[in-house]
């Protein structure tokens, strides 16, 4: 009886042992496919403060694309404008800290006058939109091996003249082409496909993982990390100062609009299959919070969700005086505008559309996202 | 043309040759074709093998493991389909039709959600195998009545279970809809792809495939007898419950390995064994090797076609599901109503 039992069990034991031994031998010495820990440094508190000035969107975009001379000029202009506004209105306006301001001017002089020694050409593979966006601003196109395919389509942010010089797309089917192009460093994210990471590592490419962007400080951290890795610390620092200065500039412009009485009646909507309002977990939610658009109309409270769906009935009940709709399909949504016809926003022609791609980008283009929100409010007509 | 007339006019050896040549050619294309020039690839591979270089090589580090994964997956799915059809005495039985694949994919989905796949790579095939086995047993026991498996019950139970599992999967993905990165990962995995396969995937799948195929091969005679019916098999001395249990394990291992490594390749385990049985006949002595050969050849060919035409919008799983679905409908349309001629496209055994 005992013999029979062992005989019956033998195939199971043999098969299990065979598989287990194989896996132990194969995987016991394999490195985890999780990328290296993201570099996280505390944000410099000095850069969180003051600054202001008016500006056109296209000028902002050009500066954010890596025009460092324009950046320095704008920072200087905004600082002067803030002083002028303070003098005229006797109100305190935000300005960059003096150290940051001086540092920005010093950096641009170094960058424009200093004859830099020829840097060793290091080639990068930015797997994420954020990494590609920063690298396009900080480095030259010949240092970038490939771009995410979808990024090329965002011609309103990245002109074709800039992206066309980079021939390859980041595509999992182009592993061998990427190997021929031989990037030295790949910027990946924590959610990058494990097999792709392994393939990159097997090809001898140095992998740097970037943090997920969930707040403004993450943008600065990522920018700093890319600056250090790409040996463009000065450029990265100047761009970070510029982002801060631009956000402060828009803050000041919002102050001049005197919207305090109207803020509770302004509603921001995301639009996919249905309408929803963003919570503070999203960058847009944080920008709205910065603008003072909090409370019942934004419905965010302390939600653990990213967005809260909103029904038409609730929307009409809220009856906002102004609606800002974030969507990828502005033309299509304009036709659906009659959804809001029972609201004051519709009657007062205060419905505005902003580009969702810009709102959700989470790179230096957060400046444009904030500008779009400001621009919508500046265009609104309140009773 | 029915089975007997086909077998009378064409020798089975002919099919072996056709499939072997297809497999050889598609394997060569898989290994040789790529973006890098072949001479550079070959010299690099030689250098690696001689220890001169340690550089990444497309042939050794990408094309070869990909080919092995495709071969294992094709053979696994075809053989598991053939065994399922014989075990349930039903030409419509297959891992995907009965919802076994759904079980594997649900368990793997949960694993992805928990993010264990980063730290424990072998957890993926283990989860897929466990899911497949769990669902297979569930379907088997639910469709049993009075000690017998009712075929109608079996199919209906399979549909019910797979619908339930898909609903659970849908609920999980809906709950995590804001985690677009995770959704993207799951979508890619569920589509079934051979992109970026490496030796890690070979190590995941190959031991499972070897054990599963060996198990099916060892029970080839019992499978033949089981197709005669449970009572007949018992009378002929087959320990039906033990053989079924072990074959269930083998099918789960084969399907789980394929799901874990490549993703969901729908219909592959249904159509191919069905066709090969028509060509070869019901004897599993020949059918199992033919399924190994045919499954490997067809899946390799499909992958080569996808890569040759650079159809990146489609994955291997998509292509298999579309072709298989069309062929399945074609078979159903050709099936005569009850009482018509016995020369049915879906043989009634």
Description:
The complex is a heterodimer of chains A (383) and B (349). Chain A has helices at 2-27, 57-64, 68-89, 98-113, 129-138, 149-152, 160-163, 175-181, 194-202, 216-229, 233-257, 283-291, 312-318, 330-335, 344-347, 356-359, 366-379, and strands spanning 124-126, 146-148, 168-170, 185-189, 206-210, 266-271, 275-278, 307-309, 322-327, 351-355. Chain A is α/β, with parallel strands linked by helices and 383 residues long. In chain A, the strands form 3 sheets. A 5-stranded mixed β-sheet of chain A has the order 8-7-6-9-10. In chain A, β4 (185-189), α9 (194-202) and β5 (206-210) form a beta-alpha-beta unit. The two termini of chain B are 17 Å apart. The chains are: A alpha/beta (383), B mainly alpha (349). The A-B interface holds A 8, 11, 15, 18-19, 22-23, 26-27, 30, 32-34, 171-177, 179-180, 189, 191, 193-196, 198-199, 202-204, 305-307 and B 34-36, 55-56, 58, 61-62, 117-119, 121-122, 178, 181-182, 184-185, 188, 195-201, 203-204, 206-208, 210-211, 215, 242, 246, 307, 310, 312.
């Amino acid at each position: 009886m005992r013999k029979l039992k062992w005989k019956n069990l033998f195939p199971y034991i043999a098969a299990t042992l065979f598989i287990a031994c194989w896996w132990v031998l194969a995987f016991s010495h394999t490195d985890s496919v999780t990328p290296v820990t993201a570099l996280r440094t505390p944000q410099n508190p000095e850069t969180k403060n003051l600054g202001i000035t008016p500006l056109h969107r296209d000028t902002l975009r050009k500066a954010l694309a890596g025009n460092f001379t324009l950046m320095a000029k704008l920072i200087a202009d905004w600082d002067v404008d803030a002083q002028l506004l303070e003098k005229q209105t006797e109100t305190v306006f935000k300005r960059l800290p003096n150290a940051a301001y001086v540092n920005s001017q010093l950096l641009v002089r170094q960058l424009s006058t200093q004859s830099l020694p020829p840097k060793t050409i290091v080639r990068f593979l930015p797997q994420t939109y954020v990494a590609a966006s920063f690298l396009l601003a900080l480095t030259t196109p010949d240092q970038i091996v490939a771009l995410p395919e979808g990024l090329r389509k965002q011609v309103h942010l990245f002109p074709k003249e800039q992206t066309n010089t980079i021939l390859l797309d980041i595509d999992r089917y182009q592993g061998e082409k990427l190997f021929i192009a031989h990037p030295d460093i790949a910027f990946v994210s924590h959610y990058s496909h494990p097999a792709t990471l392994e393939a990159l590592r097997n090809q001898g490419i140095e992998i740097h993982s970037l943090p997920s962007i969930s707040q403004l400080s993450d943008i600065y951290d990522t920018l700093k990390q890319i600056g250090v890795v790409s040996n463009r610390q000065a450029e990265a620092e100047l761009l970070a100062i510029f982002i801060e200065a631009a956000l402060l500039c828009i803050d000041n412009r919002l102050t001049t609009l005197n919207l305090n009485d109207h803020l509770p009646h302004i509603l921001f909507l995301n639009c996919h299959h249905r309408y929803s309002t963003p919570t503070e977990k999203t960058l847009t939610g944080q920008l709205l919070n910065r603008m003072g658009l909090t409370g019942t109309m934004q419905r965010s409270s302390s939600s653990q969700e990213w967005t809260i769906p909103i029904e038409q009935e609730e929307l009409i009940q809220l009856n906002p005086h102004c609606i800002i709709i974030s969507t990828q399909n502005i033309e299509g949504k304009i036709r659906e505008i009659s959804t809001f016809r029972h609201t004051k926003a519709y009657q007062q022609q205060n419905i505005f559309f902003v580009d969702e791609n810009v709102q959700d980008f989470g790179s230096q283009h957060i400046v444009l996202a904030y500008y779009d929100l400001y621009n919508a409010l500046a265009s609104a007509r309140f009773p | 043309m029915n089975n007997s007339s086909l077998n009378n006019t064409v020798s089975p050896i002919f099919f072996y040759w056709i499939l072997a040549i297809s497999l050889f050619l598609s394997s060569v294309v898989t290994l040789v074709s790529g973006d890098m020039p072949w001479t550079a690839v070959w010299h690099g591979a030689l250098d690696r093998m001689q220890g001169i270089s340690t550089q990444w090589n497309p042939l050794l580090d990408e094309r070869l493991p990909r080919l092995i994964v495709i071969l294992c997956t094709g053979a696994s799915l075809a053989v598991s389909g053939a065994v399922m059809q014989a075990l349930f005495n039903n030409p419509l039985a297959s891992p995907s039709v009965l919802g076994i694949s759904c079980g594997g994919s649900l368990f793997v989905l949960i694993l992805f959600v928990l993010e264990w796949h980063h730290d424990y790579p072998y957890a993926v095939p283990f989860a897929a195998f466990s899911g497949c086995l769990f669902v297979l047993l569930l379907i088997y026991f639910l469709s049993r009545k009075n000690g017998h498996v009712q075929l109608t019950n079996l199919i209906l139970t399979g549909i019910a279970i797979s619908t339930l599992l898909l609903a659970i999967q849908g609920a999980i993905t809906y709950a995590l809809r804001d985690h677009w990165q995770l959704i993207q990962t799951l979508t890619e995995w569920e589509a079934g792809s051979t992109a970026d396969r490496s030796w890690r995937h070979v190590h995941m799948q190959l031991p499972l495939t070897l054990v599963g195929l060996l198990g099916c091969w060892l029970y080839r005679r019992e499978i033949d007898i089981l197709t005669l019916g449970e009572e007949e098999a018992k009378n002929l001395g087959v320990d039906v419950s033990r053989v079924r249990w072990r074959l269930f394990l083998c099918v789960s291992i084969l399907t789980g390995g394929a799901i874990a490594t490549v993703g969901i390749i729908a219909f592959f385990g249904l159509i191919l064994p069905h066709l090969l049985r028509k060509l070869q006949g019901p004897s599993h002595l020949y059918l199992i090797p033919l399924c190994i050969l045919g499954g490997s050849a067809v899946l390799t060919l499909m992958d080569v076609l996808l890569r040759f035409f650079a159809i990146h919008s489609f994955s291997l799983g998509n292509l298999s599901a579309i072709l298989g679905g069309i062929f399945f409908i074609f078979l159903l349309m050709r099936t005569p109503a009850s009482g018509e001629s016995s020369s049915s496209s879906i043989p009634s055994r």
